[in-house]
Amino acid sequence: MKILMVLTSHSELGNTGEKTGFWIEEFAAPYYLMADAGVAITLASPKGGQPPIDPKSDAPDAQTEATKRFKADEGLQKILANTVQLNTVNEKDYDAVFYPGGHGPLWDLANDEKSIALIEAFYKAEKPVAFVCHAPGVLIKVKDQNGDPLVKGKAVTGFSNSEEEAVKLTDVVPFLLEDEFKKLGGHYSKGADWSSYVKKDGLLITGQNPGSSEEAAKVLLETLKR
User: For residue 99, what pLDDT is reported?
Assistant: First the structure.
């Protein structure tokens, strides 16, 4: 089984002068869950090479078993430092795609034509597509085969307005994921802030926050086994 993981290349947190990128837990937990299950994983990003890590995801209060394992895993750190460029990957080479979050994807992947086309290709080929935390935001310009927003009429989740308020970035992010999904006609729902909450609607899998990343990967694997 081959799964593509797509990470952000965007490192600037709006105009705050602070850094962002991908969230370690949302990458490490799904990666290890899938790799331990024997999945071959390819890492890609728009610019290739080392994707930026959100420094807050490396803070003591953000540590989990998966992040600790990653910090001790030089092999995976080397793989991560050499992600392939997104414009070189082809949907035909993979069984599914998984997008970890962090705030970075809201700026680059949400508007990246290659990413948009790639998700559309996976979906059209009836392959599962999974996104966690802020990564569901990369779907805002993705269309289905009828030209409608992919999320229209579908059960979806993603980082909630209340969680964005809690991290005080409501006025920094380019859009609020919860609001955007509702505007596009998605059936957005959420669990309690920071608790694991995953929605699956056919081939579309979305997780709400960092705590949902492992469950989202489990649901992806279960979907592939059917």
Answer: 98
Write out the H or E segment, with its range, that includes residue 66: helix 65-71
The neighbour count for residue 114, using CB atoms within 10 Å, is 16
**pLDDT, average across residues 200-212:** 98
Q: Could you give the residue ranges of the DSSP H alpha helices within 125-212? A: 161-166, 177-183
Contacting residues for 173 by C-beta, under 8 A, at least 6 apart: 14, 103, 106, 164
Distance CA 125, CA 111 (A): 22
In one letter, which amino acid is 170?
T
pLDDT one-digit tens code per residue, 68-78: 999 999 999 99
d(C-alpha 189, C-alpha 45), whole Å: 28
In angstroms, rounded to a whole number, what is the distance separating the alpha carbons of residues 42 and 35? 11
DSSP state of 12: B
pTM for this model (two decimals): 0.98
Residues 6+ apart with CB under 8 A from 95: 1, 2, 3, 127, 128, 224
Is pLDDT of 9 > 90? Answer: yes
Q: How many angstroms from the chain centroid is the CA of residue 201?
A: 16
- Distances in Å between the Cα of 129 and the Cα atoms of 119, 123, 135, 163, 221 are 7, 7, 11, 23, 11
> Which candidate, 84, 86, 3, 95, places its Cα nearest to that of 41?
3
Whether residue 120 is predicted with pLDDT greater than 90 in this model: the reply is yes
